[in-house]
Amino acid sequence: MEDTKSTFAKRWHWFILLILIILSYYSTAKLGLIFAFEGTVASPVWMPAGIALAAILLAGYRVWPAIYIAAFLANLQGLIVSELPFHSILILSLITAMGNTLEALIGAGLISRFSNNPNPLETLKGTTLFIFFGALLAPLIAALVGSSSFCIFTNHWEIYDHLLLNWWFGDTLGILILAPIIINWNQYKFNEWNYLKFAELVGFIIVLGFTSYLIFFTIYNLIYLFIPVLLWSIFRFGKFETSVFVLIISGLALWSIMHHAINNALQQNESILVIQSFVGIVAITFLVLSSVIYERKKMQLSLYESLTKHRSLLENLPQKIFVKNSNLIFVSCNENFAKELNIQSSEIAGKTDYDFFPIDLAEKYRKEDSAFLASGKLLETEVCETRAGQTYWTQVVKVPIKDGNGSVIGIQGIFWDITKRKQAEELLRLNEEKYRFLFERNPVPLLIYDTETLKFRAVNEAFIKQYGFSMDEVLAMQLPDLYPEEEKEALVEVAQGLHGHAYAGEWHHIRKDGSVISIIATSHDLDYMERDARIAAVTDITDRKLAEMELERYHKHLENMVEERTAELEIAKERAESADQLKSAFLATMSHELRTPLNSIIGFTGMLLQELPGPLNEEQKKQLRMTQKSGRHLLSLINDILDLSKIEAGQLNLSTDRFKISEVIQNVIDLSKPFATSKNLLLTAEIEPDLPEITSDQFRVQQVIINLVNNALKFTEVGSVKVEALLQDKHLVVRVIDTGLGIEENQITKLFKPFIQIDSGIARKHEGTGLGLSISKKLMTMLGGSISVESELAKGSTFIIRLPLDNNY
Amino acid sequence: MKLKALIIEDNEQNMYMLSFLLEKNNYEVFQAFNGLDGIKAATNCLPDVILLDIQLPEMDGYQIARELRNRNDLNTIPIIAVTSHAMVGDREKVMASGANGYIEKPIDPDNFIQRMESHFPKELLQRRNQL
What we know:
The structure holds two protein chains of two kinds. Chain A is an alpha+beta fold. Helix content of chain A is 59%, strand content 16%.
């Protein structure tokens, strides 16, 4: 309405506008008064009412003074012919004019109030409002005011109802016939005219004139002939033209009535009512029809505009696009959509879903589209369909197409295949689920916290189980809440210093039940729901810690035990050593103490036998020799026992000497010579020349050789004893060869055992301790050598010792 | 003139035996029953040979030998240890303490003098043979 008003203001000066309103109102009133009932201003068709309503609708309430002035003048003009006094006429005119003005104001106000269209006649709703408020309700006001005041002033109450009805109908018809012409004329576009249209108009007017003449002036009953004529007007011409035609028909009808009325006065009133009804119904019918047709046309136009506007764009889009009107009939589509239906895009217009799809599917689409039209809101859906076992996803967007009033007049549908995207999404979702599963079901307690705020963002099931908090509780907590007071500060520092993948160290955590556990944590930075966060894996090392402590304790215990044992062993060792020393001391003492008395025995018998103190007789000498022999035997026994004891106690210390074996053997020969001579045996030595010096214990080597030589002499009665020395396999070999009794083979192994003398029968015959060979064998072993024997009974024995050249015992 | 032999020995039987044996073999014998007496006697009579027991009261044979070796007037006198200490190492200990020879007990009268004289220095042996 703003727009219309401003257009008006531009075209006409305000003042001119008012004058124009007054003039047009007044002139049409003069015309109307010609038909007015006698002595009244009530006319069968009161045109000014239409002008007034159209003026208010188009120019606004502010033009009311013009209407009032014009109405006052018209009423005054009409009433001046009556018999009333002038002042009454004046007052009556003022009141009636007020009714006329109110009629226009209220009618226009109500229409504008409920219709948001500047031209209410463009829509069915506006047209209905126009008819109901503007053409029926508002005129009643004017009729009531006018009729009542007229009857009050003239006191002609007998014509009140007749007057009221005619007034009301007159105004109604005036509004119905004239207002649409003015309103529609305001928007009329003359440039749409062409020759063809003009020719049609000429033809139409001829038909109209002929029909009118036929009906009104000849065969009145053919009144229905108007129907095709007016339908022609409505469909082929516009609202404005139709309004004009309605006006013409109405005028002709009234004129015919007036013409008839002259002929038949009695039927005048009745005929007027009939013609009024006829005109009224024709006007209403065609107003409604033309508005509906106009609406349809305009919608079609909008659709067409919206289509053509983006046509090239839509054609080139990969999406499939269609447009349906509000009756769900396809209007247009792009090539991609047509391809989908196996048609040309030009073939789509006028088709419906039923032309392309099975009935149930078409029914379904229809339902969806109807629901969409009812909602009038943009709709985005993803549709899943299964065709031949394959799943297809389609993204569907429906956009409502609206006309200038915001009414939905169609659907623009856009859809495209999103199967690939869906598959990718599904893959992503599965992946996400997989990793979510990895996180949530991970047996290691995992937590994610915000790097900045240290608030927990997520924890897994293992964490919940381990710590006893519920998920909600955890998500309301911060990382330091898990730590004991004394660790909180250090933790925050560490947490802020961590970067990338990091070992977060050893800490304590407090569980919901208050128990404290030892943990180690490793963490890694990540982007969690678009914020910097860190995931941490927590390992409970409480048991390990306990085990470590236990181990530590055990370790200490062991150490103590070892120390104790070491101390004990030390003592034992000391004891053993002291026992050894005791043993050594005992052996030394025994040796010493036994020798001292033997010294006297052997020494003095020796000296007596030398007859140093004086001469002895033979018997004395014999007995002294026996004593001497026993003493010597006792001495050798003591020596052997001491040696054996020392060896077995490990007390025998060997010395390391560098010596020549030849010297040792010579010593032995020298020492044993007297014994051999006494038995008349030959004692010889045969030593290989250039024997190297050997390293060993000279004293012990000599002891062994003496032993062997003495044994050989002891057990040999006839013949000789020979000592040989030679080098064999880098060993020194000494052989003591006798020509004695020999040893039985089965006795040989027994030879080197202590206190063994072969053949106890001869044992007594050959004195000796029986320890000699045993000691010799032990000594040889100690010296790293060996001793062995070869023997043949009655032929003799050979004792062999082998010694390493360089001893390393 | 006889050679002088000093016997340091605490056992009377042994002392008697050695003295008798040496005297019979033409030695002049001096006797000491302990170390201190032995050193005094050695200082006084300047023997040609000292027969030294090892196990002695108060001062043992090793100490006496060392003491004697430390004396300028006595350190050339041959010392022959005559001892019942016949254990391994005893001989070495005796020799290390300064003795010239070692004869273990019980002694054999048949070769005792011979063994003793085998440890004499050349000059003393000559003197002994000249007698």
